[in-house]
# Entry
Amino acid sequence: MLADLLPSTVAAVEVRTDPVGVALFPEEEDHVRDAVPKRRAEFAAVRWCARTAMAELGVPPAPVVPGRRGAPAWHPELTGSMTHCAGYRAAALARREDFASVGIDAEPDLPLPDGILEEISLGPERRQVTALLAGHPGIAWDRLLFSAKESVFKAWYPVTGLELGFHQALITFDPARRGFTARLLTGAGGARAPRAFTGRFAAEDGILATAIAHTAHALVPA
Ligand SMILES: CC(C)(COP(=O)(O)OP(=O)(O)OC[C@H]1O[C@@H](n2cnc3c(N)ncnc32)[C@H](O)[C@@H]1OP(=O)(O)O)[C@@H](O)C(=O)NCCC(=O)NCCS
# Structure
């Protein structure tokens, strides 16, 4: 599912069940030594996905340690993103010469809990969600909106080092193309910060996935 959402130069690896016996590097082990089994399982599984993606890109296996604000620290030649939710783990990696950042997110294809949509959305987004739920049933569009925003954050943070609030990106879905645009409603980050992202989405077997591969050349005028 994920590979279909990203350019072919992005190595996308996903699993629906956890690989068995994943070996962690000592510096990774330090992060999950006291973690509950669920956290250890998702942490190890996405790192297996990441190392499989590294192999696809011809890069030797390397540790992926959570850095500042939880952002994964990649091999210097790489950028990438990881996501985990119940029944799904994935990593998408690319060479820095090809992409500035990648953002992926997966969520269960279920409506958001009561009150969350209001917290994470802007008025036009809520109106779009209402229209999409009526016109294109079968997808939890409110949860997909949340996922798109998480992908936006994961593509934004590594290139800016800045926080981004849920009200600082305006998502517009294109259901026919299974795509979306995100307009960044902040001037933070200066001239080199992204002002927009384009992404794609999928809904398969109970999982929603969103993905952004950001190049400096792909900026959509605000
Ligand atoms: C960081 C965040 C985006 C992670 O998303 P999530 O849906 O909770 O969790 P996921 O399983 O999909 O992703 C977790 C992975 O995200 C990655 N991640 C965490 N912090 C990150 C950051 N600052 N930048 C990029 N990636 C990050 C990590 O690889 C993490 O996996 P790991 O801890 O095993 O290394 C989320 O917790 C968060 O802080 N959201 C608030 C900010 C936001 O989304 N704003 C909306 C802007 S429009």
Observations:
- The beta strands are 11-15, 65-66, 72-73, 78-85, 88-95, 101-108, 169-174, 179-184, 196-204, 207-214.
- The domain at 105-218 is CATH 3.90.470.20 (Ribosomal Protein L22; Chain A).
